[in-house]
Design goal:
This protein is mainly alpha-helical. It contains 6 helices and no strands.
């Protein structure tokens, strides 16, 4: 299992990366950054600055999402054996946890509501009606053209 993002070692690494980035933004060379912050080589300092930039530019929501996913994984592990053993409460809980995980990861496929389906149906009906009206107008215009442009009040030619 990977090391937790809140482990002391990872926190120290992030702090060193932050220091390296600050020094680089101040114009300090990678060689000097390596010496001041404690990296073995210039390349190590360069990698730290690059990692700090990527970490800094990543939206805070990504970090929160990662923490929440880790929590959901722990909850799943806590009930998994009971769920696969047939405990209905544990199964329902596991399904809710998995659904939350899918929402967090954007894996959920939206299911249209009845209202959305009705709107789509109404739009199709409207489009169908428009087409029928257009067809009628074209037909009437063709009839009128055939009769010298004259239409009776009820839409008949002649």
């Amino acid at each position: 299992m990977p090391e937790s993002k809140s482990s002391p070692r990872r926190i120290l690494a992030r702090e060193k990366q932050r220091q390296a980035l600050e020094l680089r933004l101040a114009g300090v060379t990678f060689e000097t950054i390596a010496q001041r912050v404690g990296y073995a080589t210039r390349d190590g300092a360069h990698k730290a600055v690059t990692a700090a930039l990527q970490y800094t530019l990543r939206p805070p929501a990504d970090e929160l999402r990662a923490v929440d996913l880790e929590r959901l994984d722990k909850l799943t592990l806590a009930i998994w054996q009971r769920a696969i053993g047939g405990d209905l409460d544990a199964i329902h809980t596991a399904l809710r946890i998995l659904a939350q995980r899918a929402r967090l990861l954007g894996l959920e496929i939206p299911v249209p509501t009845i209202a959305q389906l009705q709107v789509e149906q109404d739009v199709h009906i409207t489009v169908d009606h428009r087409q029928a009206l257009l067809d009628s107008v074209v037909t009437l215009a063709a009839r009128a053209g055939a009769n010298g442009g004259a239409l009776s009040p009820d839409g008949r030619t002649g």
